[in-house]
Amino acid sequence: SMDPRFLLVIAALFWSSGGVLIKSVEAGPLAVAGLRSLVAALCFIIAFRPKLWPLTKIQVAGALSYAATVLCFVTATKWTSSANAILLQSTAPIHVALLGSIYLKEKINRIDWITIAFVFVGMLCFFQGQMSLDGMRGNVLGLVSGLAFAIFILITRKHHNQSSITMIALGNILAAVLTLPFALQQQIPSVADFKILFFLGVFQLALPYALYSKA
Asked: What backbone torsions phi and psi does residue 204 show, to the nearest 5 degrees?
């Protein structure tokens, strides 16, 4: 079987394509997030046939944290720079370290605290550089996305017996259902945009999260 760390590196490479591609779509953030998640949900349902009913409270919590992760990330990418959005979402391991000490009973060592301190200083620099209202809102949503992703990671780590594939499939369905009714009233994406959104749904969302779940 493949080394889980290798799977995580491949997942990260696919995830990293999100910023520039999301920026290249003319449609608004709700349309991008909703259609991307719709494609990803269909991929998960076709490939894995997850059991979506009956659901446990843990699976619902995982799905909600996942949906919040992807919706906040897309909106943050539209409102601030894609680099800011990705790096602020990448604060998730810091939240995992802090919350994991309570939820997973894991100790935080000295290196963790030093890393956390550097990340907080880095976050302050981001907020200094984005003074526009949209830029600031984008930065805040980038942070919220990181926190939501951390909660998703903690849930999937603590509850190994619960299907993370089910959580991801349901989370994508939730994201699509919550956004598309509003998004498509505002603007229908072009054919070129649909092609990018299809790629995003398959290769930037479904495939890396499947690899992450496996790892």
From this structure: -105, -10
- Summarised one tens digit per residue, pLDDT across range 91-123 is 887 888 788 777 767 777 788 788 778 877 877
How many Å apart are CA 166 and CA 174, to the nearest integer? 12
- Specify whether the CB–CB gap between 66 and 166 falls below 8 A: no
Exposure of 53 by Cβ count < 10 A (0-12 exposed, 13-18 middle, 19+ buried)? exposed
Three-class HEC string of 77-140: HHHCCHHHHHHHHCCHHHHHHHHHHHHCCCCCCHHHHHHHHHHHHHHHHHHHHCCCHHHHHHHH
- Measured CA to CA, the distance from residue 107 to residue 97 in angstroms comes to 8
Separation CA 109–CA 151 (nearest Å): 20
